[in-house]
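Weekend entry, working from home. Most of the wet-lab plans are on hold until the incubator is repaired, so I used the time to fold the two sequences that have been sitting in the queue since the last round of cloning. Logging both here for the record. First:
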Amino acid sequence: MTNSNDATRVLIVDDEQSIRIGSERILSRMGCQVLTAGRGEEGLDILSKEPAAIVLLDMKMPGMDGMEVLREIKKHHEGILVIVITGFATVETAIEAMKNGAYDFIPKPFEPDQLRIVVNRAIERIRLTREAEKSEQARQRTLHDLDTEKSRVRTIIESLPNGVLVTNRLGQVMLMNPACRGYLGIDPERPLGEPAKAYIKDKELCELVTEISQGCHLDFDDIPSLEFVGPDEKYLLARARPVLGEKKECLGAIVNLADVTAMRVLDRLKSEFVAKVSHELRSPLSTIHEQLALLMNDMVGQLSQNDAHLLSRAKEKTQGLISMIGDLLDISRIEAGNVCHEIKPVQLEDLLKSIVDFMGARAEVKNQTLSLHSPEEKLPCLNADPLALESIFGNLIANAINYTQEGGQIDVHINMVGINIRVVVKDNGFGMEEKYLDKIFERFYRVKNDKTRFITGTGLGLPIVKGLVDSMNGIIQVESEPNRGTMFTVLLPVNR
C-alpha cells in the first residue's frame, strides 16, 4: 500500500495528449499530485520509481494495451486503484477489466465532473481502506498486548508463595496456581473446570466459595476469613472475595490461601508459656495481697500517713497484677478453645439490663448517664454461655465509663438485624484517632494521651472481647472520633 503522503497521487496513462493535459488540470485543482505517461510501458516504468494511489488507464493504446498494463499493475502493485478509460473499446472490455481487478471505469469523452466524481470515490475508498487497516493493526496490537499481559499475570500468579484459586459464576475452578495445588493436595496434572467441591475438601470453605461465586456476598465487609487444616496437617488461612464486573455484577470468586502453621505453633507456645507463668504467679500474688490487707487492718491507727499510703498503693498494684493474670488466663482459655462451657438460651436484653444496673453505680460516681434502649417486641434467645456474654458487654460498658469524662453519656442499644442480634455501646467520651482502631484489639495495647494516661488498665479487656465474639461466630466493629466519642457494635447470630 502507498504511503500517506501519496494518497492522492494519480498516474494518467493515455496515448492522447489532450486527455492527459485536461485530466491533469482538473485533478491538480482537486489537490492531487499528477503524473502522466503516453504509453503503457512508460506508465509501468514510472510506477516502479514513484508509487501512485490511483491510475487512470486507457484501454486502447499502441504497443502494450490497457489490459496488459492492468495485469502488470495488479501483479506488482496490488494496492493501486485502477480506473479504466474506455472509448473505442466495447462495454464487454470494461467488464473484463473490472473482473481483472479494475476499481472503476469512465467512458470517453467524459465531462470534468464525471472525472471528479470517479476520482473522489477512489480517494474515499483509499481513505476508508487505510482506516480499516489502522483499526486492524490497532486490534492486533491490543490482542498482542492482552496476550502479553495475560502471560505476565499468569507468570506472576504461578510464582506467588500464597495459593490462588479463581472460580467462575457457576463455582467452577478456572485457575489454580502451583502453591494452591500443593496446599490442597491436588495433582499438578489434574485439569481444571470442575466445581469447587472437587478440589476443596473443607466443607465450610467450599460452601463459602460457592456462595461468593453465585453473588451471595457482594459486600466485602461481611465475608469472614476461614482457617482450616490442610492435607499435610498445615494450618491454612483462606480469604475469599467476589470478582466484580464493570456493572458490579459477580463474575466469580478469588481465594487466597496462606500457610499460617508457624504462627499457630508460635501462638500455642506463647499461650502455654503465659498460662504456666500466670498460674505460678497468681498464688503468691494473692497471698501478698491478703497479707497486705491483714497488715493494714491490724495496724489501723498505728501507721503514719506516708506508710499507710505506701501499703495502700502496694495493695492496689498487687490487685492490678492479679486482675491482669486473670485476664491472661482468660485469653489462654479462649485461644485454646476452652470457652463457652455452659451453652443455654439467654435473653440478651435481660442480661444487659442486669449489667447496666450493676454498672450504674460506677457511672453515678462520675455523674454519667448510663441508659439501655430495647425494642418493644421481645427478641429471640441466644444460645450462648451467659458468663461469656457478661464478659463481652461488661468490658465494653466499663471501658465506656472509664474513657468518658464526668457528666458524659453512655447509651446501650439492642435490636434485631437480619439473623443477628445487634448491640451498640456508644459514648460521647474522649474518643480516639482512626489510626488506633486496628490496634485496640491487640494484647496490652492502650491508647495513651493527656486525657487517658491516668486511667488504669491491663490492655487485655478488648482482646478478650474480640476472642469471645469470634468464638460465637459474631462480628465486632468500632467507630471513633477524638473528643466526640466511641461506638462499639457487636453482631451475634441467633442460630450458630
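Second, folded right after the first finished:
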Amino acid sequence: MAGALLAATPATASPASGAASLRTEAAAAAQRLGAADPAAAQAAIEAYVWGIPLVTMVRTRARTLCLAPVNTLLKTSSLAGPSNRLVVTPNADTLYANAWLDLRPGPVVLQVPASDHYYVFQFLDMYTNTIANVGTRTNQGAAGRYAITGPGWHGSLPAGVRRISSPTPDVWVIGRTLVTSSTDLAAAVAQQRGDTLSPLGGPPASTRTPGLGGCAAATASNATFLTELGTAMAADPPPPRDQPIVSDLAAVGIGSGLTPSAALTPGLVSQAVAAGTAVVDRTAAAARLTRDGWSNLPSQGTYGTDYVARAATTAVGLGANVPAESVYFHAGTDASGAALSGASGYHLHFAASALPPIDRRAFWSLTAYGPDHFLVANAINRYSIGDRTTGLRYGVGGSLDLYVGPTAPAGHEANWLPAPPGPFSLIFRAYLPGARIRSGAWAPPPIQPA
C-alpha cells in the first residue's frame, strides 16, 4: 500500500520518569566526585549518559563514510572475521550491508528483490532507536520499494512505494543476509546484488565493496565530549520526549549552539565521562535479566527514555535490533560466576526439548569475542557455531552439546567453537525468536567447565 508506514514498536517509558531516573543517578555520581560546582558536574554526567549513543553514532558514521559516501550501500561479500573492526560485536553469520542516509535533500528509496534467504534491513535514527525493519519477517520475502523520509517531508510517493519516516535527517541502515552454509555464500552475494538505494525519482546509486584499509580509528577525547555532543545535536535535533534532559543540559550551556559553563573544565568533563560510564555499568547490571551466567537487557532496539539501557547497548552491541527480529544473550562468566578464560574449556548442553525456539527461516548462533568486543583469529577460522554449522552432531534423541575452549575436545571437533586467548565473552543470538525467547521463558543453557 503506497505511503504505508513501517515502524518498530517504541519503548513506553514516560519522559518524566526517564529524566527523573537519570537525574537521580547523575546527582549521586556528582556528589561522589566532590566537584566545586555539583550542578555542573551533574549536568555533565547526564550529558554523557544521554548523549554517548548519539556521539558514538556520529563517530561510527565518520569512520564508515571514508569507505563510501552518503546514500550508498556498502556491501560485504564475505562473513565477518578479525579484520572487521568498524562496529563492536559483529556477527559471523550474515553478510552485512551498510549505508548512512542524508535525507535533507529528499527521500531515499531502498529496493529489494524477492528472496528465499533470511534477510533484514534495519533503520536506526541517530539516537540508536530502530525505526523500522524491512525483510523476511515484515514482507515474507516479497520484492518491494521503501522510501525513507526525513522530518518535515510532506510530499507524495509513487504507487507501490511504502514509507518509513525518520525523526532524524541522518539514518543508519544495516542490512544482514544469512549465509546458510559454506556453499551458500555465492547465492547470498547474488541476493545482495539486487538491493539498491536511490534518491526518490532518480537512478540507483553505486554500491561499494569495502577494502581492509583506508579508515583510521576515530580519535576521541573525553575532555572534548561536550563539543562533539553539541555539534551532533545541531545536525540531528533531539526528539521532543527528551526535552526534560535537554533543558537540564542547556542550563549549564550544553547543547546545540551553546557555550558550556566555565565550570565545565576539561578535567571535570573527563571525570564526568568516567562517572557516567560507571552509572551505566552499575544500573544496567541491575536491570539485566540474568540466568545461569547469561544476561540480556529488557530494553533493546527502541529505548524511549530508558537512557541507561540505550547507553549500555551502545557500548557492547551498537545496532542491536528489536526483540521481534533478534534477541541477544551475553555471558562474561560461566554458571558459577567465574570469568570466562581462553585457558579453560567450557560445555553447553541443550536438551532436545530445549533447543532454541526460533522461526525456521532464521537462525541461532554462539560467538566468542575478545575483551574489546571484536572477533579474534583462530586456527580453523570458525567464529560462530549454530544451527547451520556444517557437520554439527546431535545426541541421541536430538540433544545438542557445544564446546568452547582453546583446543578441540577429542571426538567433538564438529561441535567446537575456538575460544580467544585470555578473557573473552560469548553472545548467543536468536533471529526471529519464538515467543518463549521474547518473554524470557527460554535462555541458553548454563556454561559449565568442560
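Plan for Monday: verify the second prediction. Residues 1-5 have pLDDT under 50 and may be disordered.
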